[in-house]
Structures are given as structure tokens and as C-alpha cells.
What does this fold into?
Amino acid sequence: MARKKTGSPPRFAFLRSPLVRWLLIGLALALSLGLLLFTLFLVKLDGEVRTRFAGVRWVLPAQVYAAPLEVYPGAPLNLERLRHELDRLGYRAGDELAGPGTYIAAKDSLRVDARAFTFWDAAQPEQRVEVRGGEQGIDSLRLMGSDQAVDLLRFDPMLIGSIYPSHSGEDRVLVKLSEVPPLLPQTLLVEDHDFYGHGGVSLRGILRAAFANLRAGHSVQGASTITQQLIKNLFLTNERTLKRKITEASMSVLLERHVSKDEILEAYLNEVNLGQDGPRAVHGFGLASQFYFNKPLNELQPHEIAMLVAIVKGPSQFNPRRAVKLVTERRNLVLKMMSEAGDITPDEYQLAIQQPLGVASGPGGGAARYPAFVDLVRRQLAGLYQEQDLTSEGLRIFTTLDPSIQETLENRISADVPELEKSRHMAEGTLEGAGVVTSVEGGEVLAVVGGRDTRYAGFNRAIDERRPIGSLAKPFTYLTALGQPERFNLQTPLDDTAIDVTLPNGQIWSPKNYDRQEHGGVPLYMALAKSYNLATVHLGLDVGINPVRKTFAAAGFDDVPEVPSIFLGAIDMSPLDVAQIYSTIAASGYRTPLLAIRAVLTKDGKPLDRYAFKLQQTLPAGPVYLLTWAMRKVIDLGTAHWATSVLPAGRVYAGKTGTTEDLRDSWFSGFGSDRVAVIWVGRDDNKPTGFEGATGALRIWGKLMRDLDAKGIEPLPPADVEELPVDPVSGLRADAGCTETMSEPYLRSAEPQQYAPCANQSKSTPSNWLQNIFK
Amino acid sequence: MSIVKAGFGRTLAAAAVFGLILSGCATEQGQGESSSVPVGGSGVPVPATGTGSVIPGAGTLIPPVVTPPAISQNYPKTIQDSSAGKAVLSLYKQAQDARAAGHADQAEALLERAQRIEAHNPFIWQALAGTKLELNKADQAEQFANRSNDLARGNPYIEAGNWRIIAAARQARGDAGGAMQAQARADEIARALSAD
It folds into this structure.
């Protein structure tokens, strides 16, 4: 044996060959070096994974909320309207209260499980409340399961947008794993069911996928674990190279050494891309839930969860708003997996596959419903915060938007503008419109519409379209005059006769009345009500250009040129600018800078800033009261008389029509005691529309105020104003001797001294009072 | 023209003086300070409506044409006595509690909610004015108190409170003279009420 052993050529004799030996040594060295390099690579990668993951700061765009709905006995809404509001908030109607965000509607009651929410002033817990009422309104609220009355129920506000970074468009709503419905991770882990067992990479998964793909003949299953997908999304590109795959697998294994499974899963839930909305990328399930279903993630039903899981693989290919059939099929496949895994019962499965996708309508769903308003919010925020903070700190912005008022304004503009367009036989799409509604006290911007396509996030006419305001400017000339009570009151005759004004450049300006007539001596209030140009120019020249400019500035707009044509509205303003100056009149001369933001919280719900409305009396209350009286006459008997045909009888509103040269712009701005509304109608190419203020914008305004159920003005004369009986014929003071009188306000300091001829106390002869008028 | 150039404040001062000359009495107060005015020594507040009312004078007293009814009993003393709704009362109470606890900013937020529900409730405007004072916004305190006076419809209880706030606001701004005037106004109304 030994001989044989020694006799036979040694099995590894070739090893004795120096060449082979050198080769082997070389190989060993190379391997060691490779190993060393790989170790170094891993060490470097490990450091990178640790620092990068630790440094992962979610890009958390500021979330923008509408004003919350407040419900209380006597609130200005009925049960039907309340249901509508709850539907808008993504509350689900049913036969039982199945957790927050659900309600049961009956004829005279509505039981609701109101969601918890952290407001600026308090954190409000989830509450189950029964609201009783009917057609007329809300009668009472009661905490369910007790006799305890609820004075006021504030609902969670609607998420209406976010301030995401423009370079990446990355938008998300952060969720915690504990807040996620368990069905979601369960379903996500079907393809990575060893998630809690593997070390970042799953050999079994790779084998299973390879087998499945071989059997199918093409790629049907991926082998990537959740960890790998997270690594890829966070740190790597989409390229399909071996190097990328190795890096991904290595980083996954390394990540698992430092971070718990739950942390990885939570990060994945917040990182994964689930859709695109124009420039905005929808990241994470939290935002996707809002984006597609307009409600928080924890309220999603199995079929909705299944849909989100179904689109993870390719949200652009599987776009639920476009590829409805494809997504439904894929969703049903996911539901089948859920059922097979025992995560849902067969009954739930049957129910779920019959559901439509249930995706909220509109290109952006709830989150991009109000582009014009969010645009305004963005601008106001830009003056208050750094862009970096807005786009990444997860600030929660509470705004003044009233979704109900916004809806009313949108409905009016999108219905009436096309109708007006049709009435003038204009080509479809040529006529545009914009509008703003604000609160009278508090200066809150309640609704903004930037064009007839209310969802279009482009040119915002309510803010950016600055057009001449025409006769909307007149009240400020009249107010300037009424501020000189020793010279002007509502009955002061104005000279409505032709006039040539020499401009600084030597040109002659010869304004005309709209009806091309001259009306001679016209009482001041009537000249405004009938919007006479000549009387206004005479008045304006009498009081002076600069005093009128000062009045504008006091009302809240100081970019008024120093030319006489400002009396007739040669001032470029946006509907929002107009809302500002009319708000000051509506609020009895108190100027409140219009605000769209109420408060800002940090991402953890801690109060950061609040924007209390500010007040400054900049216009004198007495003259403003007189002016408002004259502006009421605009509707009672003047250019806006049409509005009385649609406005609720017995309610008093004040406003002014505005028309610009060649009928290019049609304006109406007016108010009651709680709302100011401004409507503009015109063309983007600035060509004539054929509409005056009264035939265009007023039509929308009147119906808008009706639909808003806007409160009428409750005349409350300031201390320096008194109402006196006046003889309508002479415009002089009346008493019991006059058969017909009207009540008219005067500043106490300048009550009319003359009595009308009909008055018992008349001491003046007719020739005297005529002389007085025309002196 | 010259009056307008000088601004509305002066216009009004001029207007007020003009009015006083007409009614034959002199005054130190401008317009817009009160919708109801107590008459000097008689101690009876007079509602602003009607031609018989008189702007309060530091000097001469003009008796009202018609003896006004004892009005104080008709005015609610507190918001609880007023026709305010339950929601507003609840918010108002929460706000008072917050103020008492030193959380004026929270009170301000609660009162703004109440104000959105009852925009013309002078008690809310007054409480907001008080809150502004606590938040060291003296200027805003005076503006809000003035607005409350505008909306008070002559309620002397509200007006007295507002004048006290205005006095404190002026004091805080270093306007001792103005503060004294406002305090005198508050005291005058208070005297009238206690005499009533």
C-alpha cells in the first residue's frame, strides 16, 4: 500500500509545479485582497447606511387645512347640508358607527363618530354625537350614551393641499406604524412573508421568485424584500445593473443590523411612491390615502387598502384615475391574496370585489381641489416662513377657507360664466370669471376662484389679473366728499353736465355718461346709485385727486395713479384687492388686512404661530355709514336693481357695478352684514365682452349672495349719525306736514337746516331752497 | 379740501366741532367713541337715536328734549344675560378660564371662534379687547374696544368696560392724558349706572 502509494504518482503532484504554486499563491492573495476590499467596501457602506438612514429626514411638506366646520344649535346649516359636509370630509355613511369618520343619517337626526384632531387651541378627542334637527336647521347636539348636551361640535378640518418643494415635488403625510391598519402591512408582506425572519435579503424569496418566473416564462414575481425596496427608494437609482443589485443587497443586510424591522416597515410605508399629480409626487400611504380617498389611512376599507397595494408596483401604469379596469383587476388579485392568507373573511372578500375603486373625483382628489385658494395661502406663507421650513418641516397650516362657501362660489362661476358666454354668442371658453368671498368682520378670505375651470392650478385671476375697476372706484370719491359734511350730504345736488378736463400732458379728457345723456342737478346718492360719470368727475375734481387717493389708501389699496380718470376707475386691481377695499367699507371703516391663514402648528401639533386679525379704523364711521346707505340705493333703485329679483326679499345689501371701456371688464362688488363678495367677468385677451357690470358680474353676484344665504345689512348708525325724515321731492327736511317722507342719515354736525316746502316748520320759501341748492 | 388733506381724523374732529357749534355746546370727544352717551351731571345715559340726544360736554349741559327712559335695566350686564347662543357662551367661558389661567393667546383663539359665530356681539369684541391688552397689544385693544362700543347699541355696561380697557391701553402706550379722559368716561358711565 505504502509502496503503491509512493509508487503511484502523487495526486497533487501538479502542486509541486512552481508555476501552479505561484498561481495558487497569487489566487489566494487576490482572494484575500478581494475579501479585504469587499470588507472595506462593506465597512464604508455600513457607515454610509448608518449615517444616511439616521440622517433620513423625511421631506415633510406643510399641510394646509381648510377652516373646520363648527356645528351648534342654530348653526346656519340643516341636516342635509351637514351630511353633504361630512361626505366632503370623507366620512362614511352607514347603518352603524364603525369607528371615527362614520355617521348614520336619519330624517331628523344624524349620529356621527367625529374624528379626533389637534387644533391650535385644544386637542379634541374622538366624540360620538347625535345631532338633531331637520330642514330648518340644527336643534340640539347630545353626546351619545349620555344625556350630556354638546354646545358646539368642531369637525376635523379638510386637508386641502401642501407646500411641497418645487425641485422634487416630493409630498407626503407621515404615518406611524401604530396608526396604520394592520391589514396594510399584512398585505404588503405577502410577497415578503419572511420579512420578520430574513436578514435583509431573502434567499428563499429569490428561489421562489425564480421558480415562479421560470414557470410563467416571464417575470411575474420580484425577489426584492421590503428592506431592499426601501434601500433602493431611499439611496439608489432605478438602474438594473449587477453593481446596483449588489450594493442594494449589501446595504439591506447592513441596515437590518442597525434598525428594527418595524422601523424599516414604517420607513417603507412613508417612502414608497404611489402616484403623481402634475409636478407633485405622492409619497407614502398616508398621503396616498388622502390623495385617492380623501380620508385618513386608518379609515380605509379592505378594498381601498388592496387598491393602494395594487398600485405600489407602478403607480403611473396603474393609475386608478385612468386605468380603472386594470387597477380593479389588480386590486381584486390583491383581495384574493388577502382572502387566501386569511386576512379577510370570504364574506368580506365577496363584498370587497364588488366595490368600485371609490377614488375621489378630480385630478388631485381632496388635496388639490382648491388651487386658487392654496395659491393665496402659499403667497401669504412665503412672507412669513423660509421655503425650507415650509417644504420640509411638516408644518400644519390652518386656513380660513370655508369649503361650503367655496363650493357655492365655484358652482356659480362654473355655471354662470358659460351661460353668459352663450347669451352673447361668444366662442366657447372665451369668457372668464373670477371671484372672492371674505368675511365682513375679521377679514377672512373664505373662498377664491381663479377662473371658470375651478380646479385648474394655473393663472389665478382672482389675484393676478389686475384690470381697471371702472365704477367700482366711485364709492371712494363719494366717501371722500361725505367726509366733508359741511359741504356734502346725500342730498347735495351734483352737476351732471359735460366737462372737459385738461390732463397734465395737455390732452383734453371728455368723459361721457354711459347713456350719453346729461342729467343736470342730481342728488349725490342718486348720482352714485345710477353711476353717473359726469357727476362723479365734477365731484372728484371738487374734492381733489389726492384726497381720493388717500381714501383708497385708507381702505387698503395705495397703488392709485395721480390722474383724474381714477374717479371713473382707471385703477388696475385684482378681485382680491377690490375685496380688501370693499371690506373696509363693509366693516364700518375698520380696515382688517385680508388673511387666509389663522394658525400654524408644528408637525407634532404644538402651537407655533397664530395670526389674529388686526383692526384699524382708517375711514370715518359716519361718512362710511352714509356711503353705505347710498350703495344700498345702487341695488334698491340704481344700476344693480336686477339683483332684487334674486336676492331674498326684505334683506338689504350694498354694492356697486363696474364696467370698463368698450365693455371689456364687468365687475360687481358688494356686501351684506357677514359677507363681502367680488365678481369679475372678462376675457383673457382683454377684448370687449359686451357686458356691463350689471349684465355680467352682477348676475353671478346676486345669485351667489342668494345661494350663500348672506345676511342683510343691519343698519346701526354710529353716534355721529342721525336719521331724519326728508321730503323726496325737494330732498329737504320733512316733518308731519309732508305726506310722503323718506328717512335719510345725516352727520349730526351737518343736519340740513332747511325744511321742505311741504313741512309745517318750513321757514324757507321755495326760491330760497332752490337758491341754497344751486349756490 | 384742506380738511381732507389733513386726513379723516381731523376732518371728523372738525365735523364734530361744527356739530357742537350747531347744537351750542362744547366737547372734548370726537365722533365714534360711543353710540350712547351719558349726560353730564344728570347721570342718565341717553340712547343715541332721536334728535334730542346730546354729545357729552365737559362744560355746558344741554338737557335732552325728551326725558329718556331709565335704560340701564333693559341692557344685559353680561354676555350670559344677553341673547348669545350656547355655543358662543361656551366658547366665551372657556376663553375666560384661559385668561384666568394666564393663557391669553388661547383665549384670543377661542374668542375669535365665538366672533365668527356671532360677528356683531359686543361682549365678544370687548373680551377680545381685554385679551389684546393682556397680550401687550395696546393699540389693538383700543381698536377692539372701539368696535365693541360701535356695536354696543348704547349698552352702558359694555361701554363702561370698554372705556376702562381704552384707559388701560392708553396708559400702556404712555398716553396718560388720553388714559385719564377714557377713565373719566368710564367713571361717568359707572356713576350714571349706580345712580340709576
In short: Chain A has four domains: 87-152, 167-353, 445-708, 721-773. The domain at 445-708 of chain A is CATH 3.40.710.10 (Beta-lactamase). The first strand of chain A starts at residue 62 and ends at 65.
